[in-house]
Amino acid sequence: MSALITAYLADAGGAAVATILADSGKGFDLVTLGRNIVNGLTFGSIYALVALSIVLIYKSSDVVNFGTAEMGMFATFVCFSSLSVLVGRVGNNPLPETIGLGNYLLAIVATLVFAGLLGLMIERILLRPLSKAPVLSQVMVTIGLGVFLFGIASFIWKADNKPFSELDAVKSANIRINVDNAFISITGEMITAMLIGAFLSLLLYLFFKFTLVGTAMRAMAQNPTTAKLMGVNVGFLTGLTWMIAMMLLAIAGVLVAPKISLSPLMMANVAVLSFAGAVLGGMTSLVGAVVGGLLVGIIDNLVGFYLPDGLRSMLAFLIIVVVLTFRPNGLLGKVVRKKV
Amino acid sequence: MNKISNIIYDLLRKPYIGLPLLGIFLITLPVTITVIPMFQGNNYTYSLLSQWVILSVTAIGLNLLVGLTGMISLGHSAIFAFGGYAAAYLVVKISLPYPIAIVLAAIVGGLIGLLLGLPALKLSGSYLAVATFGFAVAVPEFLSLNPQFNDLFNDPNDLATKLGVVKVEKQYLPIFEFTKRDDLSRYYLFLIIATVMVLLAIGLWRSRTGRAFRAIRDSETAAQAMGVHIGRYKVLAFSLSGIFAGVAGAMYMAQIGQLDAKDLQFGAAESILFLAAIILGGLGSIPGAIIGSGLLVILPELIKSLKTQLREMTGSSIENFESIFYGLIIILCVFYMPNGIFGALKKLAEWMRGVGREPMLDPTKENNLPISEEVINEARKGV
C-alpha cells in the first residue's frame, strides 16, 4: 500500500515530497496518515474552540484578543485549584492521575462561572472604556492583561510543569480501528476533545441561528447602531459574548492540560495555532473558525510528522501570512469594505 | 516660577538644548549612579546601563513604526534576533571588525524589516499585529529546532553547539581593546553607537519622510490625497525600524557574548517589552522611548527586595514576578497616560507656563484686558 502511494506521489509530480519522505525514513502508509489525522482532529477541535473564542470577541468588540493564551491558562489553573480542593489536596500537591465524574463536573462548573465573571469584568472594566480608542490601545490592553495574568499565575501556582488529572472514565476508554493489519488507536482523551468540540460548535450554531439572544448578537455584530435602534441591548450582549468566549477558552484549557502538562506557558502554542485557524476561517465567521481550527490541527500534525522540524514552527506564521496576503477574508469570511 | 517652567519647557521641546544635557547625563551616569546605595559601581550596574542603551535603540526604532507611522509590530524581537545572529556570524566566522559587523547587522535588520513590512501593504491594525506576532513566535522556534543552524557559527563538536548556543568569544571583539573585559567601557562603546542612532532618528523625525509617516498615521486617505505613496512609505517605515532593531541585536550580542535561540530575549515576550517601553515613555517621541526603556530596565531591580521578601515568606522561588508589574504598567498607561511619561511631562510644563489656560479678565477696568501679574499678586496678598 505504502509503495503504491509513494509511486503515485512520484507519478503525480510529487517527486520532491516522495524524496523528502524517503529521506526522513518515515513511511507513508494509511495507518500513519490515519493516526496523524485523528491526532490532528483532536488538537484541531481544541484549536477550533479557541478560534471560536477569538472570533466571537473580534466580532463583538472589534479587538483581537492577544491575551487568549493567558486567559485560558488562568481559567485552567482555577480548575486545577477547584479539583485540588474537591479531592482534598490543598496547596501545590500534585493531583491524582484520574478523578471521578462528579468532582470533575463540579470543578468545571466552578471554572466556567469564574471564566464567565472574568470575561464580563474584562469587557466592562478594560475594553468598554476603550471602545473608541485607537486599535493600538485596545491591543495593548489585551496584551497587558495577558502579561499580568501570566505573572499572577506564576506567582500563585508556581511556574513549573504540573500533571493534570483526567476523568477516570475517559482514561480507560480506547477505540482501535484496524487498517492494513495495523491499528489506529483513538484514546478516550481524543474522543472527548472531538466530541466536546463538535458539541459546543453545534450548540453555538443553534444558539446563534434559532434563539432570540443569538439573533440579537448577530444583528449587533453586523451593525451595532442599527441593532441598538431596534431595541438590542448592545452593552449587555457584548458582555455576554465575552463570557461565552472565556468559557470556551476555559474548556479548551481543561482539554489541553492533561495532554501537555499544566504550566503558565501551556496555552501559548495553542493560541498561536488558533490564531492561524481563526485567520484561515476569515476572522469574522464562526463556521470558518471551526473549519480553520480543524484544518490547522490536521495540517500541523501532518507537517510535523512528514516534514522537517523547523517547518512546523513556522507553520502558524506561514498560514497567517499566506491567507492574509492572498485571501484576507479567509475561507469563509465576509468581504469588509472600509469607508472613508 | 515662570522661569523654571520655561526652562523645563525648553528642555522638553528643544532637542538642541535637551540632547546635549542628556548626553552629559548619560556620560557621567556610571559615576553619579554610585551615589544611590542600591547601585554600586560594579560591573552589574554597568551592564544594566548597557541594557538600557540597547533597549532604548530598539524602542526608538519601534516608536518610529508604532508612534510615528501608526502601525503595530509584535515581530521586533525576531528582527532583534536576526541582528544578533548576523553580527555573531560576521564577527566569528568572517572575522570582520565589530563596527563593520554592526553596519551589516543594521542592513540585515533593515532587510528583515522590509520582509516583515510586506504584509503591511495589505493589512492594518489587529491583522498586522497577528501576522507580526506569528513571525515573532516562529523565528526563535525555528532557530532552536534547527541546531544544525548553529554549526554555521561554531565548531560542531563544541559543547556550546551541542547545547544549541552560539558562543561569541570576547576576543572576537577586540576593535576597541577595552571592550574585552569590563562592562563600563562597553557601555561607553554602546553610548557612541546609540548616539549615532539617536541623531539618525532625530533627522528622520524632522525630515520629509517623517512628516509622511505622520500623515499616514493621522489619515491614510488624506496622506494619499496629498501625494504620499502609502505602500512605499509603510514598507520604508518597517525597514527603517528594522535597522534600529538590527543594531540593537548586534549590541546585545556583544553584551552577552553568546546567543541562545531559547533565550527569552528573542521570544515574542520581548516584543511586548519593547512596546511597553514606548507606551510607558510616550508614543512617537524619542526621549519618551529612552525614558521608558530606562524605567523598564530598572524595574526588576526595584522589585528585587520585594521578591526576596516574598521568597522568604512562601519559601519557594518566584518566577515571572516582573510580569505582574509589566502588565499593570501597560494597562495603566493606556488608561491614564496615553501619551506616556514624556507626554505627561510636556503637559505639566505647558500647564505651568499657562498654555491653554483662559486668561483672567479684569472686571474693574472698562477695556477688559487680562489681569496683569501685579494685580494678581496684590490680590494674593489680600490687599
Compact description:
Chain A is mostly helical. Chain A has a single domain, classed as ABC transporter involved in vitamin B12 uptake, BtuC (Orthogonal Bundle), CATH 1.10.3470. Chain A contains 14 helices and four strands.
Task: Please give a structural write-up.
The complex is a heterodimer of chains A (340) and B (383). With 340 residues, chain A is mainly alpha-helical. Helix content of chain A is 71%, strand content 5%. In chain A, α13 runs antiparallel to α14. The longest helix of chain A is centred in the first third of the chain and has 32 residues. The N and C termini of chain A lie far apart (59 Å). About 2% of the residues of chain B have low confidence. Chain B has 383 residues and is mainly α. In chain B, α3 packs across α12 and α13 crosses α16. Chain B has a domain of 259 residues: ABC transporter involved in vitamin B12 uptake, BtuC.
Q: What level of helicity do the residues of chain A show?
A: over 70%
- Please provide the count of β strands of chain A: 4
Largest sheet of chain A: 2 strands, parallel
Overall shape of chain B: it is globular
What is the average of the pLDDT values of chain A?
A: 83
Total beta strand runs of chain B: 2
SSE order and pairing:
The complex is a heterodimer of chains A (340) and B (383).
Chain A: H1 2-11, H2 15-24, H3 30-61, H4 68-87, E1 98-99, H5 101-127, H6 135-157, E2 166-167, H7 168-172, E3 174-179, E4 182-187, H8 188-210, H9 212-222, H10 224-229, H11 234-256, H12 268-281, H13 286-306, H14 309-326
Parallel strand pairs in A: 1-2
Antiparallel strand pairs in A: 3-4
Chain B: H1 2-13, H2 15-32, H3 43-68, H4 76-92, H5 98-117, H6 125-145, H7 159-162, E1 165-167, H8 183-206, H9 208-218, H10 220-225, H11 230-256, E2 258-260, H12 268-281, H13 286-302, H14 304-314, H15 321-336, H16 340-353, H17 373-381
Antiparallel strand pairs in B: 1-2
Helix pairs in contact in B: 1-2, 1-16, 2-8, 3-8, 3-9, 3-11, 3-12, 3-13, 4-5, 4-6, 4-11, 5-11, 8-11, 9-11, 12-13, 12-15, 12-16, 13-16
